[in-house]
Amino acid sequence: MKAIDEVRQLLGGLDPTRNTGPAEDARHERDLARILSVDRTAGAAGRATPRRRFVLAAAAAGVVAVAGGAVAIGIDRQPQPAYAATPALLDYGPPASAEPASVRLRRLAAVAAAQPMPPRPAGTVEHLESANWFLNSSISGGRTASAVVPQQWESWRSDDDAGRMVRKDLPPIFRSDVDRRQWQKWGGRVDSSREVRDYAAGEFYRGFRGEVPTDAGVLRDWLRAGTSAPPAPVQYLEDVAQLAGIRLLNPAQRAAVLTLLADLPGITAAGTVTDRAGRAGEAFSITSDAHGLPAQYTVIVDPRTGTLLGYEEMLTTTAGKLNVTIPAVITYRSYLKAEYASMPR
Amino acid sequence: MDAAKEQFTELYERHHAEVWRYVARRIVASDVGDVVAEVFLVAWRRLADVPAGSPLPWLYGVARLVLANEARGRRRWQELTVRVAAEAGHVIVMDHADAVVSQRDAAVAFNRLSPGDREILRLVAWEWLTPVEAAAVLGQSRATFAMRLMRARRRLRRHLGMASDAAGRPATPSMSNRNG
């Protein structure tokens, strides 16, 4: 039997869509209208795929909302700023102690380990909330944006990896009154609708499912699972930063995270800082060009509890081809809530 | 409506469902609409590149790039694992053979393959593409694709415990019907 025929016979019945098809005629028409309203000549040449996500979630035609929240407005008409808006820099003071970062982080790991377990009433699930912003999603096809629009993420996760993630744009932050007036003049609007994703059991956030390990070595392997090449040290820091926004970390897990960070080559104490939510923290960084441009990757830790407060990525040396002025924060995560709460209906 | 919009609208109306299926076969449902919209946005921007005669392999190629293009740490598409629910015991009777395989075993064997093998087999078995079309989706020559298809099929058969003679046809009855 020909290979193709055999393969079709063996696997044809497994087609996940054999009983389904696209639904939602409303979405079908809406997407078509929005695509057609995009200026296809606006500097998109040479890029295989746009890097934006949720391209067509905008509430109003002519406004393209992008994930992680900087919004391009009236693309073919609005004068574009020369540089994209980026968040304010945090102000770092001298480190809390003269100890090397690895020693300090181990001390903070001990602090974390000594914390009480968070209360978990019956029937509750992991409930997290954070505010996030990513530059990459605001720049595409040569277009830039004049406001920083952070995105609020709220998630619930049950022990069997079912859950829900809700994302919503927060009010825009302007660099200046000029930017704000221009935004209003061109009718800029932020997509105010929430985006909700529900996950069935076993589907919540690939890469972060199941029990978070309480041993730093096991945590390393857990984060690395599924990757083939050994990650650069900074990659562990990034993974941990993502983890803290997706999973609730109990004291032992927090201690494992801090111990893992303590062992990363190149980790340095970046100083004390007030984070974007106004909380006092200690910052630890790795500077690396593992992703192309030299950047400083920072985690902010609450010294009283060992909780992760936030994460920052900053370009300090060169912007490469990105149209931002140096120094520039190009990503931040601000962890606001991690508790056990009831799953919403 | 200008010519470009008309051309695009026809492309969209004609192939939306197929692109939707391509994506829905690979990632969990909640993300599918966004990915499909992004694929067609690329098509709109690169309308001049869309091959007139057979746009579908080109669209699938774009979808493949969109799915692969995970910005680090921003999003991870939830990959769809092939599952068999109600018909786990349903048997596939292979032509010319005494071999009988259950849907469940086929699913398990399929899931054991590498991502590359799975994509090759999906293009043939679910998108029902010819080798020429599938090669175009993957950016390979027809000869390369044909060779990879043979290997993927061989590995699938191995996972299914199907013996094969030199010609690659099933030689002996192997798997019996397993229920559950």
From TrEMBL, chain A:
Disordered: annotated segments: 1-26
Concerning InterPro entries, the annotation shows: CU044_5270-like
Q: Which residues span the membrane?
A: 54-75
**Where does the source fall among the domains of life?**
Bacteria
The alphabetical list of record keywords is: Membrane, Transmembrane, Transmembrane helix
Record-given protein name: CU044_5270 family protein
Could you tell me which species this protein originates from?
Micromonospora globbae
TrEMBL record, chain B:
**What PANTHER family is this protein classified in?**
RNA POLYMERASE ECF-TYPE SIGMA FACTO, RNA POLYMERASE SIGMA FACTOR RFAY-RELATED
- Protein species of origin: Micromonospora globbae
Keywords attached to this entry: Sigma factor, Transcription, Transcription regulation
Residues covered by region (Disordered): 161-180
Can you name this protein? Sigma-70 family RNA polymerase sigma factor
Q: Which residues form the RNA polymerase sigma-70 region domain?
A: 11-76
Tell me which InterPro entries the record gives: RNA_pol_sigma-70-like, RNA_pol_sigma-70_dom, RNA_pol_sigma70_r2, RNA_pol_sigma70_r4_t2, RNA_pol_sigma_r2, RNA_pol_sigma_r3/r4-like, WH-like_DNA-bd_sf
Q: Which GO terms describe its biological process?
A: DNA-templated transcription initiation
RNA polymerase sigma factor 70 region 4 type domain span: 109-156
